[in-house]
Amino acid sequence: MRSSLAPGIRLLRSLPRDSWYRGLTLVLTFMFYTSFHLSRKPISIVKGELHTNCSSEGNLAPNGTNSTTWCDWAPFDQANYKELFGALDNAFLVAYAIGMFISGIFGERLPLRYYLSGGMVLSGLFTSLFGLAYFWEIHVLWYYILVQICNGLVQTTGWPSVVTCVGNWFGKGKRGLIMGIWNSHTSVGNILGSLIAGVWVSSAWGLSFIVPGIIIAIMGLVCFLFLVEYPEDVDCSPPLHHTESEEKDPEAKLSAQDGSQIRENVIDAAECSTESAEEPEAISFLGALRIPGVVEFSLCLLFAKLVSYTFLYWLPLYILNVAHFSSKEAGDLSTLFDVGGILGGILAGLISDYTGGRATTCCVMLIVAAPMLFLYNHIGQNSLASSIAMLIVCGALVNGPYALITTAVSADLGTHECLKGNAKALSTVTAIIDGTGSIGAALGPLLAGLISPTGWNNVFYMLITADVLACLLLSRVVYKEIRGWCGCYARQRGSSVALTHAVVLDGK
User: Apex CA 124: angle with CA 119 and CA 126, to 5°?
Assistant: First the structure.
């Protein structure tokens, strides 16, 4: 006698074929971008080892000298090591910012599977080359700068590609929540990168780069073997971004859907460029800029990403200098900021789906983030408990808006109704928004490197100022959202009054 079919298999067979592929795409792209961030994080962990307090090592300097930098790694053994670290960060981030604007254009004209997998393999190569400098005993600054520039350029293949793939498979319905959860790959990658780098940071820091490099290269091979770019490629149904009736009658759309669709009031189709509406293939750079909301969210992300990446690259060193932990302890503690980022991204997506206010959600979180950053700098190191709590809260408030803009907002604008269903704009819009944000990502660590010698308080004042500016840049879009809510409420109230009046007349 044969047993009945296993319950788990019955459950799997009950799932629609489309759901299988959507789930696979979500998991694969999550893993791919996790590996991107996993390979970026080691530099922030290793900084404390490249220049450390040699007198605290408990060992005498070689040959009985009085050198205080004998255990440092040249060329980072100089007094200006913070500026050198800032230059190292900027070599990657400036190349990333410049390359991102070009990457989106290539991403729409090349097969995404080839483009993404090739970029991941090359990123693994350059990440490993940085770590091999430890074993090859390379002590010239230009080598590290050159490797960082090359790595920054090839890593631009990642974000437009994965967002485009997810946008191709998922409609607007619960995009904020889905992408909020999906976008936790950024924080998961940072956490894993910190933990992996921390294993070898004090023994052989080169492995802190080589191991993540191997991981992202393996993920590139997985991408080549399994990624499906479009639902049509496997005979699945494409997502419905907006119906024809909604396109012709915005009022019907507003009354037929809940507050999650009120965001359509944020972007007025009449403002959209006719170029983007008529172009059947890939949209031009200027055409993408004319999509309502792209400029505002791009500039907001510039300052939001400035804050996020300053924490990404400098938080372990800040904890090491202020709280006097070891390099490994500081790296482990800094992961709590990314734990908060996971929670913040999910919360921002959930709230924006429920309210329909992407910009308003970002603005509120940015407003609250400013005083929280001030408090973390002044009381965050008073105890381990306060440090843990403040890191999680600050991570949620800082990374929440950043996550929402780079995912759900980018996908919304890239499939905006004025494009008449032409999703070819998605990669370019994503690249413009994230590329502009990457300018801020480059400026933040650079400014931190220049300002930190004057005191960490000044670094936090810079971060608070950036948060406020990010909020102000969204003010016009927030105003449109609020106006849309008020108009919706007025129409609903008017409909209710009209219905009541009709009932009264009918009764008569």
Answer: 95
Q: How far apart are CA 197 and CA 186, in angstroms?
A: 16
56 pLDDT band (50/70/90 cuts)? low
Distance CA 228, CA 289 (A): 28
**Residue 245: its H or E element:** helix 244-248
For the beta carbon of residue 450, count every other beta carbon within 10 angstroms: 15
| pLDDT confidence band for 38 (50 / 70 / 90) | very high
More confident residue, 493 or 504: 493
Crossing angle (nearest 10°) for helices 81-109 and 141-154: 30
Reported as a pLDDT band with limits 50, 70 and 90, residue 424 is low
- Tell me the pTM: 0.71
Report the C-alpha dihedral over residues 59, 60, 63, 68, rounded to 10 degrees: 110
How many other C-beta atoms lie within 10 A of the C-beta of residue 149? 18
Rounded distance, CA 209 to CA 152, Å?
A: 15
Kindly state the DSSP code that residue 134 receives in the 8-state scheme: H
Residues in the chain: 508
- CA angle (361 as vertex; 192, 244 as ends), nearest 5: 105
Under 8 Å between Cβ of 202 and 327: yes
DSSP code of residue 5:
P
Q: Is the pLDDT of residue 129 over 90?
A: yes
Phi, psi of 382, rounded to the nearest 5 degrees: -65, -35
The 3-state secondary structure of 471-507, one letter per residue: HHHCHHHHHHHHHHHHHHHHHHHHHHHHHHHHHHHHH
Peptide bond into 75 cis (omega under 30): yes
Question: Which tokens go with 62?
Answer: 């070689």
Give the chain's radius of gyration (CA, Å).
25
CA of residue 396 relative to chain centroid, distance: 13
For 440-496, what is each residue's pLDDT tens digit? 888 888 888 788 888 889 999 999 999 999 999 888 888 888 887 777 656 666 665
Instruction: Assess contact for 349 and 396: CB atoms under 8 A.
Output: no
Are 429 and 295 in contact by the 8 Å Cβ rule? The answer is: no
**DSSP assigned state of 237:** P
Cα(221)–Cα(306) distance, integer angstroms: 32
Q: What is the mean pLDDT of the chain?
A: 78
Is residue 151 within 8 Å of 130, Cβ to Cβ?
yes
Which tokens belong to 456?
A: 């960490």
Contact predicate 266/503, CB 8 Å: no
| Domains of the chain with CATH codes | 15-49+79-229+243-507 (1.20.1250.20)
Non-local (6+) Cβ contacts of 300 within 8 A are: 362, 401, 405, 470, 471, 473, 474
Counting Cα atoms < 13 Å in the Cβ hemisphere of 476 gives 11
